[in-house]
Amino acid sequence: MGESLRSQLFINSEKVGDFVEVTLPVSGDDEEGEIARIHYLEAGVGEPLLLIHSLGQSLYTWRNVFAELSDNYRVIAVDLPGHGYSSRPDTFTYTADAFAFVIDAFLEALNIKSTHVVGFSIGAMYMLRFLSLYPGRAANCVAISPGGVTEYMPALVHNMQKPFVATFARNLYTAGNVRKLLEECVTDPELIDDYVVKQYYEPISDGLAREALMYALRNYDQESIAEGLLPVEHEVLVLWGKNDRWHPPSGSVYFQSILRAGRYYLVRNAGHLLQEEAPVKLLEILYSYIPPAVPSYDVYRYTQNLADETE
User: Fold this and answer.
1) Which of 27, 169, 237, 298 could form a disulfide with 159 if both were Cys (CB 3.0 to 4.6 A apart)?
2) Beta-sheet pairing, 74-78 with 138-144
């Protein structure tokens, strides 16, 4: 997928990176919140930059930009609860509020008071909920292809939301299904090779991970996220791939109605997985929008042609 040499060195493994423990919100009659182990990958120095993946993903989705971002920021890619190599908590509700709570607790555990944040797809919506609930924590915010489950997504995704068929749907979530889903998210299906499919599938191949995905899809409530954003004046940069079939760029009209201070870019030659398919273009935009404290030569090289890469 247009990977650089440094991207090819990215290792997606529970043995790479670090873990931190966070206490989840108290659930039911429990007197204490459950402890969850959160897996993350961190590199670089400078201002913190947190990367948040979408549902059914892991921090692997940031492999094509992680190393380059670490040249200019303290970049942190996190596996959300139930995803990647983070734990699959028994009492976690998988709501936007719960994910926002974990993001806040995760930052507290790393002693980070404020951070830039980049979120992708439903992960971008969790970022926006985090922004509305913990406004003091968020600096610059970038939402890539934000939104929830749309009519353009395949039946498998929709079925995971339905109480009576979700259990069967999650059992059908095979490596072959993962390949088909990924192929719909890029402009060129040949970019999805066996290695990429394996890296996506392995962290979600166990039953608990599929159950987490099922509950996260079922408990996703975009209306409550939107309502929470109405009073927020914090600026958010929203990016779309021009060829995004799952979250078409026409969705920007919706976000213009709920974001009081939104800025919008449309990236050519990219589908839903913008950060994987058009990493150089994404880096150009990020370096322009979030100037590094000590810019490197590459930053200037990236930004000089920014106008040519977006429309």
Assistant:
1) 169
2) unpaired
Report the C-alpha gap between 70 and 76 in whole angstroms. Answer: 9
Domain of residue 182: give its range: 5-309
pLDDT of res. 167: 65
* Complete edge-to-edge strand list for the sheet that includes strand 48-52: 18-23, 35-43, 74-78, 48-52, 115-120, 138-144, 236-241, 262-267
Q: Rounded distance, CA 167 to CA 185, Å?
A: 24
What is the C-alpha end-to-end distance of the chain, expressed in Å? Answer: 22
218: which 2 tokens? 């079922």
311 three-class SS: coil
Across-strand partners of 207? none
Beta bridge mates, 49: 75, 116
Please give the model's pTM, rounded to 2 decimal places. 0.92
CB 66, CB 51: distance < 8 Å: yes
Over range 257-271, report the average pLDDT.
95
Pairwise CA distance, residues 64 & 229, whole Å = 30
Virtual torsion, Cα 139, 95, 125, 55, nearest 10 deg: 110
